């Protein structure tokens, strides 16, 4: 069982216009949300500034949906002196730090599967973001095929190990309340097929135990583990009752202010 505050993330993905972001922020500000929940919303890069300006800063923190890291696979000793430079189209953790963007989502399954981010890349990104003082939501999760083959935990532990190997011994980088793990079974993302609360709790408990065995008891207690995958205002309360479900990462329903506010209040 974790000891941290409930934390709900809204992943807006590649959605939005100036008008719709304004409307969504207005709707979020109007929502009555309990004090005991941390809320992080992740607009596309181009709308982060607009969201920061529009949102009630006391209630809502913002996140980027990705951050670039440079590394050389051939030279594992190469560490991130700088991640700015000749990387056309990328946005770096240094830039997020410069703009005071406090959070970043890393390793989302859409980036892993559609854009080929592997475990090593995600581990390096997490370590580098921590190095720049960013809070991280790192996503892990199995495909339907992997679940049916009985490989769920094997897959998730490999994803976690890649993170642990990078952040373990690095200066300024650490586990704890600033690293949130989002368990997002790929078969449940955007499909309307939510994991049962028992399925989610089982994986969350296994992740927590993995942290005890591979990092520390203290970190295991301090780390918030979110569930993500077709969370909505109808299923959130049942999921939130489980002791190892410390919050949610919400895609589709985070674009609807009223639904998202209800999800934020689901642990109350
Ligand atoms: C997500 O992309 O993080 C997610 C959980 O999406 P959805 O809620 O739409 O399934």
TrEMBL record:
A GO MF term: triose-phosphate isomerase activity
Species annotation: Micromonas commoda (strain RCC299 / NOUM17 / CCMP2709) (Picoplanktonic green alga)
First and last residues shown, out of full length: 41 to 308 of 317
Pathway(s): Carbohydrate degradation; glycolysis; D-glyceraldehyde 3-phosphate from glycerone phosphate: step 1/1; Carbohydrate biosynthesis; gluconeogenesis
Coiled-coil regions listed: none
Family of the protein in this entry: Belongs to the triosephosphate isomerase family.
Protein's recorded name: triose-phosphate isomerase
Transmembrane segments annotated in the record for this chain: none
Record key words, sorted: Gluconeogenesis, Glycolysis, Isomerase
Keyword Repressor: no
EC number annotated for this UniProt entry: 5.3.1.1
Self-association and partners: Homodimer.
GO BP: any one term: glycolytic process
Entry's Gene Ontology cellular component terms: cytosol
């Amino acid at each position: 069982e974790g000891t941290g505050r409930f934390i709900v993330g809204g992943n807006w993905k590649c959605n939005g216009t100036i008008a719709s972001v304004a409307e969504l922020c207005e709707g979020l500000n109007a929502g009555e949300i309990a004090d005991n929940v941390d809320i992080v919303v992740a607009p596309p890069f181009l709308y982060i500034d607009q969201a920061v300006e529009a949102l009630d800063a006391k209630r809502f923190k913002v996140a980027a949906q990705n951050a670039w890291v440079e590394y050389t696979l051939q030279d594992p000793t190469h560490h991130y002196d700088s991640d700015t430079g000749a990387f056309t189209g990328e946005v770096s953790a240094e830039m997020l730090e410069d703009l005071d963007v406090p959070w970043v989502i890393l390793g989302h399954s859409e980036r892993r599967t559609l854009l080929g981010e592997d475990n090593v890349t995600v581990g390096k990104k997490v370590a580098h973001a921590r190095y720049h003082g960013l809070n991280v939501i790192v996503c892990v999760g199995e495909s339907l095929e992997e679940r049916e083959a009985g490989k769920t935990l094997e897959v998730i532990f490999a994803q976690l190990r890649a993170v642990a190997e990078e952040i373990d011994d690095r200066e300024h980088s650490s586990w704890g309340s600033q690293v949130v793990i989002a368990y997002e079974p790929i078969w449940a993302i955007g499909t309307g097929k939510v994991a049962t609360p028992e399925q989610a709790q089982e994986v969350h408990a296994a992740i927590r135990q993995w942290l005890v065995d591979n990092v520390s008891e203290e970190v295991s207690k301090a780390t918030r583990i979110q569930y993500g995958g077709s969370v909505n205002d109808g299923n959130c309360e049942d999921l939130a009752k489980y002791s190892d479900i410390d919050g949610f990462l919400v895609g589709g329903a985070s674009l609807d202010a009223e639904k998202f506010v209800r999800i934020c209040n689901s642990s109350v």
